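Quarterly update, task 2.4: adenosine-5'-triphosphate-bound model.
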Amino acid sequence: MEKPRQISAMEAFEKLEKVGEGTYGKVYRARERATGKIVALKKTRLHEDDEGVPPTTLREVSILRMLSRDPHVVRLMDVKQGQNKEGKTVLYLVFEYMDTDLKKYIRSFRQTGENIPVNIVKVYLSLSLALFHTIT
Ligand SMILES: Nc1ncnc2c1ncn2[C@@H]1O[C@H](COP(=O)(O)OP(=O)(O)OP(=O)(O)O)[C@@H](O)[C@H]1O
C-alpha cells in the first residue's frame, strides 16, 4: 500500500502577503485552507551550496518547540516542508499570527512621547533573561 503523502506547505496554506524578514528568512501572513485560520509562515532561507536543513534552523525549531509551551511566547504550531523554484526543499515554520511585535510596541510609545510602564519593562527584561538562559 502507498504511504500517505504529507501535504506540502503551499497545499495547506495560501500566502496573503509578506509581513517581514528576519535573519533566516521571509515571513508571510497566510491562511490555512482547511480552517481559514490566519497564521504566520516563516520560510527558512537555504544556504546556497548546502544540502538539507541548516543546523541553525533545526536549533531554532527545537528551542521554539520548548519555549512555545509558555503562553507568553509566540506559538510554533507546525513545521511544513515545501519546495522552492529550483526544486530544493525549504522549511516553513507555522506560527500563530501576531498583530504586533516588540519593535512596533516600543515605537508606539516613542510616537506619543509616553514612557513604557515600569512593570511592563520588568516583564520584558525578565523574559529576555529567561530566553538568554534557555538559548545559551
Ligand atoms: N508570528 C508572527 N506574526 C506576525 N508577524 C510576524 C510573526 N513572526 C514574525 N513576524 C514578522 O516578521 C518579522 C521577521 O521575523 P523573524 O522572526 O524572522 O525575525 P526577527 O525576530 O526580526 O529576527 P531574527 O530572524 O534575527 O530572529 C518580524 O519583525 C515581524 O514583523
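Highlight for this quarter: Residues 19-24, 27, 40, 42, 74, 95, 97-98, 101 surround adenosine-5'-triphosphate (CB under 6 Å).
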